[in-house]
Each structure stands twice: as C-alpha cells, then as structure tokens.
Amino acid sequence: MLIRQPADICPSEITSKASYLNRRKFIQSTVFASGSMLAGAAAGAIIPEERRAKLAGVGKSEFSTDEVQNSYTDITTYNNYYEFGIDKNDPFRHSQEFEPRPWSITVSGHADKTGTFDLEDIVKPHALEERIYRLRCVEAWSMVIPWVGIPLADIVKQFAPRSAAKYVVFRTLHDRARMPGQRSRVLQWPYIEGLTIEEAANPLAILAVGLYGEVLPNQNGAPIRLIVPWKYGFKSIKGIVSIDFSETRPRTSWEVAAPREYGFYANVNPEVNHPRWSQARERRIGAAPEGGLQSIFGAKKQPTIMFNGYGEQVAHLYDGLDLRRNF
Amino acid sequence: MDVTRQIRFVWKPLVFVVCLVPAALVVGDTLQITGALGANPIEEIQDRFGNWGLRFILITLTVTPLRQISGWNWLVRFRRMLGLFAFFYILLHFLTWLFLDQELLLSAISEDIFERPFITIGFTAFLILIAMAATSTNGMRRRMGRRWQKLHYGVYVAGILGVWHYWWQVKLDASDPAIYAVLLTVLLGYRLWRRKRKLAAQQSRNQHGHRRLETP
C-alpha cells in the first residue's frame, strides 16, 4: 500500500501568528461574555469523519519544537499499538479496516459532569492547536511529531472534577472484533493508563485528534489519544473510550505486565535504565542529514534528555519524589 | 558422476547459494532494490541477522537426528557448512550491533556486555561459536582428537544461550523466541532420549552377560 507523503507546507506555517492570536482573543471574549465553560463552543473544533481530512482552524503553540519532523510514513508505519499487533508495523497493517466513528467517551468518578458523551460534543467547546513534540519510546528510539489536539486541562475542566479526584484514568476501546491484537493476551485488556490530576493539568498534556494537520490515522490512536511528551510513549494511551476521575492510583497496563520494568510515572530519564537496556541514548528515527552511511542507516544515537527536554515545564511536578524508585 | 562428486560439485554449491539468500536480501533491501528496511533500518538488520543465526543453529542441530532417523548418511556432509553459516549470520548480527548500533562507542559496548545480562549471554554464545568456527577445518579436527568433539558439543550451549538471549530482549511477547525454544528442546531432548536408550541397552547387555556367567 502506498502512503502519500505529507504536504510540504505544515499547518503551522499556514496559520499566521497574528490571526491565531486574534482568534484566541475572540474565543476568550465569547467565553467570558456568556460566563460558562461550554459557551466556548465558538471555538468549535470539528473532527471530520473522512480519513486524512484536513483539520480546520489549527492554531500554533509556543510549546512546539523546531526540530526536524519525522516523515508521515515513519510516524504512521513504525509505532506500538498492541491492540493491532506487536510488531512495529502491525498497527499500520491491521488497523486500516478500523472504523473510529461514531465515538463516545464515558466519564465517571469524582466529577460533577459524568456520563457518556459523543466525541463531537467533547471537542466542540475547544480550539485545535498544533503541538510539535518529541516522542521518546521506552525502547530507546524517538521521533518528532506534529500532533493536533486540545489541552487536556481544558477538557478535564469541562467535566468539573471534585477535590477527591487525585488521578485521571484512561481506558482504550476493548473490542476484539475491531482490534485483532486483543485476541492475544500479551497485555491485560483494556489498556489502562493514568496521570495524577496535577500532571493532567500541565499545559504540555494534550488529547490529540490529528497528525500533520489531518485527522489522526487509526494506527496512531484515532479518533482521540493522550500525548504526554515528557513521559515514555506507552503513557500516551490511544483510542480513549473512558475517563475516570479516581481517588486511587490505577494499576496501569504495563505496570501490571512487568512491574519491575515499567512504573506508573514512566518519566523519560536517562539516569534510570530499563532493567534490560540503557536509557542514556536514543535513536532518532529517520533523521539523517549528514549523508554517507547515515543516509542509509539513519542518524547516530543522541543523548536522552531528562523529561525528554521538557523539564522546564514539568520538573516541579516531581519535587521531592525519588525518581529512581518511582520510575 | 558418483554420489560424492555430485554432492561436492552440485549440491553443496547449491545449498551454499541458498544459505546466502537472507544476507543478499538484507543488502537488496538496504539499497531499496528488493524491498525496504522500514523506519528503523539498524534494528531491522540486527534482528534479521540474529534470527537467521538462530535458525541456522537449529538447522545444523537437525542434521544428526534426521540422519539417524532416515538413514540418509550423506546429510552429514552438509553439517559443517550449515554450522559455519550459523556463525556467519551471528557474526553479522554482532558486527551490526558493534558498528551500526553502538557506533564503536567503547563505553556503551562494555556497559552492554557487562551490565546487560541478555547481551552478556549473547556474547558468550558468540565466543563459543568463534572457537568452533576456528577449529572447523579437517586439520584442526585431526590435531585436536577427542578434545575436538568436546569443544563442538558447545553448539548445544550456544543454542541454549542464543534462544535465552532472544527471549530476554523482547519487550513482552515471547511467542517468537518460544518457537525457537520448543524446537531446541525437541532437538536436544531427542539426543538425551537416544543416549538414555543406548545406556539402558548397554546395561541390560551387561546384566544378561552376568546371568549367563552365573548359570552353570
């Protein structure tokens, strides 16, 4: 199967900073004018149902990196999504028949607004933003990916969590008929991930609905997935169908599968090795500007940075926490 | 042409070329002629060579049981070549790790070998295979006498360590290494079973001999 190369123009280059700021001002004014969170509907994020449809009204973000982005092909043919198989290109090969729409998310636990909501209604009050983030997999490879999404904090706020909500727990769709990888018991299904409520409120955390300015492809977690760029990739749960505001810390899927190797926090940390391999360096997939051997085999490994280089935004979340024990 | 010459001049070269196909495909895919290596070429190359190394160890270990069961004694003429191909692919696996994965960075290499148990055992298996490959000539076999056979039993150890090395490095799903483990267990189990049967037969012969002596 052929995969179309991404357009040469990134969405980030299309929306000018001025018009973006303008639109933000407009949204804010409507929110305050009506005095209600949901009145922000003027932001009106829409996720088209057709595959690879362009997303409209995507704003820029100061959190985006200007590092070389990975190609659409790399991002969509090399990743982990065990719901569709365990090899790196299984998600691409086995997710093409998956129908991500219609989609709803069940919200439960310690929040004022609980129940089952259509995806359209959850995203409508918000504006879409492009976030070009580094992604560091626990397997010691990394990419730079232009996601499109909504700050998780804004969506969390929408459900009005109460003070008893200490954790936000996410679950992936559990449907063996639609997700063939779930026929194998390699992980405990459904896939479960979680964040502390403080982590969920961090402005870096987003729920992504798009990639390269287009609707999120199935293999990357359509229609909606978490992105927490300072943590190893497995924390960024895909195909989310439930959000639970919990008082207790969840036992996440990888923690259950191998508690000595994968922890709840899973912050990118070059000083704490995986029991079986080093986390000090990473291989940046694709990037190979130097020519010669590297144009064939890819770039040299590069040092991994604490919190994947997002320490400025997130390090304070872990003050006083022993990151060696809470890996 | 008699059978010996036919094996030597027709079948051996043919098998030799077939055994080179996986390596040729890696070259072809690297140059994007026969296919492609995907987003992470180094990992792909390393995995392919490692897998073929293990497969050739298993194929080599199949020669003797197959010969004993079928009576096709000519099979043994291919055994050394198949064993050397196992070494060839493990060597390529090792060189890929050394040059492409670790980029000859000494600190990373020594950390891998001494602090990562799965690499320690993989490296140990590789050392055993080096010793076997280096002593695989007819001359060495003659010179070493009985020690040669002892050294070359090392293939059992290398096989076990190799499968263990593979099993230990997969993230979670061990179904692929499990297949190798089952095949290896069958191949080594057959040898144990045969040995036991031989010993039992010897023992009963001895006992019968005794009784005959005692009978007046």
Structure description:
The complex is a heterodimer of chains A (327) and B (216). With 327 residues, chain A is an alpha+beta fold. Chain A is built from ten helices and 13 strands. Chain A has one domain: Oxidoreductase, molybdopterin-binding domain (Sulfite Oxidase, Chain A, domain 2), CATH 3.90.420. In chain A, strands 1, 4, 5, 8, 9, 10, 12 and 13 form an eight-stranded mixed beta sheet that branches. A five-stranded mixed beta sheet of chain A has the order 3-2-11-6-7. The longest helix of chain A has 18 residues. About 6% of the residues of chain A have low confidence. Chain B has one domain. Chain B has 216 residues and is an all-alpha fold. The interface between A and B is medium-sized, with 27 and 22 residues.
Short description:
The complex is a heterodimer of chains A (327) and B (216). Chain A contains ten helices and 13 strands.
Per-chain topology:
The complex is a heterodimer of chains A (327) and B (216).
Chain A lengths: L10 H4 L2 H18 L23 E2 L12 H6 L12 H5 L9 E6 L5 E4 H5 L4 E9 L4 E11 H7 L8 E6 L19 E5 H5 L4 E6 L2 E2 L9 E3 L12 E7 L6 H5 L23 E4 L8 H5 L4 E2 L7 H4 L13
Parallel strand pairs in A: 1-4, 2-11, 5-12
Antiparallel strand pairs in A: 2-3, 4-5, 5-8, 6-7, 6-11, 8-9, 8-10, 12-13
Chain B lengths: L2 H28 L10 H30 L8 H23 L4 H10 L1 H18 L3 H7 L1 H7 L1 H16 L5 H40 L2
Helix pairs in contact in B: 1-2, 1-3, 2-3, 2-8, 2-9, 3-5, 4-5, 5-8, 6-7, 8-9
What attributes does this structure have?
heterodimer; A: 327 residues; alpha+beta; Sulfite Oxidase, Chain A, domain 2; 8-stranded mixed beta sheet; 5-stranded mixed beta sheet; 20% helix; globular; B: 216 residues; mainly alpha; 9 helices; 83% helix
CATH fold-level topology of chain A: Sulfite Oxidase, Chain A, domain 2
Classify the oligomer.
heterodimer
- Global geometry of chain A: globular
Please give the largest β-sheet of chain B. none
Mean pLDDT of chain B: 92
H-E string of chain B: HHHHHHHHH
Into which percentage range does the β-strand content of chain B fall?
A: under 5%
Roughly what percent helix of chain B? over 70%
Uncertain segments of chain B are none
Number of separate domains of chain B: 1
Order of helices and strands of chain A: HHEHHEEHEEHEEHEEEEHEHEH
Q: What is the global morphology of chain B?
A: globular
Number of strands of chain A: 13
Rounded to an integer in angstroms, the radius of gyration calculated over CA atoms of chain B is 21 Å
Number of strands of chain B: 0
Helix content of chain A: 10-25%
Number of domains of chain A: 1
